[in-house]
Amino acid sequence: MKSFLIDRYVKGGALRFTESPQPELRDNDVMVEIHAASVNVLDAKIRDGEFKLILPYRLPLILGNDVAGIVVQVGARVTQFKPGDAVYARPAQDRIGTFAESIAIDAADVALKPANLTMEEAASIPLVALTAWQVLVERANVQKGQRVLIHAGSGGVGTIAIQLAKHLGAHVAATTSTANIDLVKSLGADVVVDYKKDDFEKVLQGYDVVLNSLGKDTLEKSLSVLKPGGKLISISGPPDADFARENGSGWLLQQVMRLLSFGIRKKAKRRGVHYSFLFMTANGGQLAKITALIETGVIRPVVDRIFPFEKTNEALAYVETGRAKGKVVIAVK
């Protein structure tokens, strides 16, 4: 099968277009003929080697963390899917590889594709929607009437997180650039802060939850927005010891991550708020719940551009500019 892969970690390096062996189908797997895949910042970070300590991949590695396609074969123990099913998924972190023509995925990580979405639209959803779900529903337990700040509101995670937070009944603020204010408002944000004109930490206060996907400066400024007991949840780091334990890391790596997050945890504690790092995990059951929200119109995908499969490197480069509104998708088939 045709694929795009990396042979070694190279910052900003191009993916190699090549022929790869068909993936092995395990008893609990479904084999998916890939129709579309979406590109995430995570793909660039893996290529650059930023996660090689916590995600020790064996190289060469086919990149790609989102997929929509058709089931063509099922493993011996799979009963919930059959050949011909249209599905979508974020494969488990140790079994990525959606920049290809086929992929084998554990059936527990797969859900039926929303009936009202195209393959390209569906491929834009899994990683960012699961991230938003795991931050807002699982980790933050957002309740009706709470105040939630979502940074980078026009980005892949932000566009879904705004809609989900509104569905949960929250008052939602979001940061974005001047050009994307109308988009972010259309998704349901109650307050939009143009980061090019205003300092969010000066105009927002008394928030229960902040979802951070940006750098250290934004992370630290977010502390002043939270009220005592509030939660600062970052998907861009620094990782903490709790994440290391959940990820199965050894004692030494746990201590490294404890040190990496020591500064922000100390500052958070001083303000009476809680800091945690979240690295989303594959979950077909949660994705099925997201499917229901999409099919009832609660959540809609935001797709910026669709690239043909052979232009996967161009798609990744476009994501790295940081200018995409919502998601960038690759049409494989």
Automatic annotation (TrEMBL):
Entries under SMART domains matching the protein: PKS_ER (SM00829)
Cited PANTHER family: ALCOHOL DEHYDROGENASE RELATED (PTHR11695), RETICULON-4-INTERACTING PROTEIN 1, MITOCHONDRIAL (PTHR11695:SF294)
An example of a GO molecular function for this protein is: oxidoreductase activity
Q: Does the keyword tRNA-binding apply?
A: no
The record ties this protein, via CDD domains, to: MDR_like_2
**Protein name, per record:** NADPH:quinone oxidoreductase
Residues passing through the membrane, by range: none
Alphabetical UniProt keywords = Oxidoreductase, Transit peptide
Q: Which organism is it from?
A: Pararhizobium polonicum
**SUPFAM superfamilies noted in UniProt:** GroES-like, NAD(P)-binding Rossmann-fold domains
